[in-house]
Amino acid sequence: MDTIRFRLQIFLVMLVIVILTGTLGFMKLEGLSLTDSIYFSVVTVATVGYGDITPKTEAGKFLALVLIITGVSTFLGVVANSTDMLLNRREKLIRKEKLNMVIGVFFSEVGTGLISIFSSCDTSADELRQDLVVTNEWSVEEFERESERLRHYDYKVDSSLADLNGLRAFLQEKGELVLRLFENPYLLEHQSFTELLRAVLHLKEELLHRKSLENLPPADYNHLSGDIRRAYLLLLHEWLDYMKYLKKNYPYLYSLAMRTNPFDRNASVIVK
User: Fold this and answer.
1) Which of 2, 24, 74, 176 has its Cα between 20 and 30 A from that of 221?
2) Which CATH number, 2.60.120.460, 1.10.287.70, 3.40.250.10, 3.40.50.150, labels domain 2-89?
3) Which pTM does this prediction carry?
């Protein structure tokens, strides 16, 4: 997209120069008014050529010839690059929509459950619970403010407080789905979500390689705490961005997401 935009800018500058040169040239060589000169330059470059104004002098004809050769190609370059930009923008919007569908599947099947598990071993989770109970009244500014607050949040994770066996069973059950999501080509355009999936898969492997998750040494609990913290941090940012996306584009999905918010202790899927 940046390359196309750069090419378009170059062609636009060239087109302006060509039309300006033609305008000044016809005013001087043909004695045309400013309006007629601009008009003749534009209809020549645009290949319209009504024929109501034609050059009378040899120099004017030569200038018209140069204008046709340079101007028409420049004008076509502007049209072609403008079309490419519009098509690329449309394709980008389609890719973004498909990517958000993939993210939606992740949170529906895996992400929301992981937040509940991870928050159970976050010793400062009560602070998050106060800030992340999203409502219909939240504005874009509120989402952005909470996103910035998450960047400075101190994720105090203690894996010894978590149900590690339950977490392992959950990740083992959902592992195939996460792998399938990982294969989606649209994820290449969303690095942070790709990193989240990688962190989740790594955590799954860490848990599966341990024969027992009971009475682990402190150093191992600390190691698992780091793995959970990595996935937890990435997960919350993606969750908040996804909630903002749903509120803007899919109110009915946002309604369900609010009623299943893992941070809202009063959340209920039953509409009251």
Assistant:
1) 176
2) 1.10.287.70
3) 0.73
